[in-house]
Amino acid sequence: MEKAWGKEDITILAIESSCDETAAAVVRNGREVLSNIISSQIDLHTLYGGVVPEIASRKHIERINQVIGEALQTAGMVLHEMDAIAVTYGPGLVGALLVGVSAAKAISFASGIPLIGVHHIEGHISANYIENQELEPPFVCLVVSGGHSHLVKVIDYGAYEILGRTRDDAAGEAFDKVARAIGLGYPGGPKIDRVSKEGNPDAINFPRAKVADAVYDFSFSGLKSAVLNYLNSCEMKGRQVCQADVAASFQKAVVDVLVEHSMQAVQECGLKKFAIAGGVASNSALRSALDKACVEREITFYHPSPVMCTDNAAMIGAAAYYEYRKGVRHGYDLNAVPNLRLGE
Ligand code: KG4
Ligand code: ZN
Asked: How far is ligand 1, taken at its centre, from the CA of residue 48, in Å?
């Protein structure tokens, strides 16, 4: 029997197109996903060894209407049943973002349904609300994706304090670059994750970078250079490179830093809840190291399933719900902001 929904239920159509996934979802009350459609362009970009912004934008244009239609259809709903249209408006690739923003504005204008712009990182963090119904702020969240590495104190819904961020490469970017250097190709993260299972994480002692004046900040470019130097020196000495050992040792260096900074942040904030988000959050070594570290410190560890870690629109619908409840509505002057900062 169909459930009778009360008037207080808020149903949001969410759109995400900040990078290489064209995605739309219908989310009820921020936590219940009625549909979550993701059209990935990964196969296309693999041909070029990384995301080609111009191609990403063109593909978003080709796919977005169909993806939105499918999200409504799968949810068994029609547009006028939506309470808001939510869309990622930054950060991300400007041309890619513009496709989602333009589609959302057009739908909102034509239907009169309110428009809500969502920060992509806020979306990643909010993915945790979907699969952990009991999770509520405050908590600390480590956001590690292809474009971002942030340690965030989630003070309340939509209220964030950035404790630390990367000074150079994002964690996922380092995974992707190192994967390319050792011949694994794109996308690097999942490939390094898989190959590392065959390697020795203690084979090579790669550096664990610290940023002198900011304990929670990250720096991954030195680690990436150390891997490249190691590969060059092996080549010069005619030594064979064990791909699995390099992958596992690199991964361990990243994981060690992420775990150490995260645990220090949770403890210094005096909190007992910790969550992870973003594409790199699906890394198996990172998840098990964080799991162990949290158990040792009696911290509750929250993590979305892998499909909710990488880019999707359900997480945007979850974040938008709390913005909606606060009264946030955007006008038709909403624009794509490629370097949008959290909290703006
Ligand atoms: O969150 P996401 O889908 O897109 C951005 O907002 O950037 O993250 C994509 C990043 C890529 O760099 C990819 O290599 C990385 O997440 N990634 C992983 C894994 N799965 C995806 N990194 C490490 N281990 C994984 N299992
Ligand atoms: Zn993302």
From this structure: 17
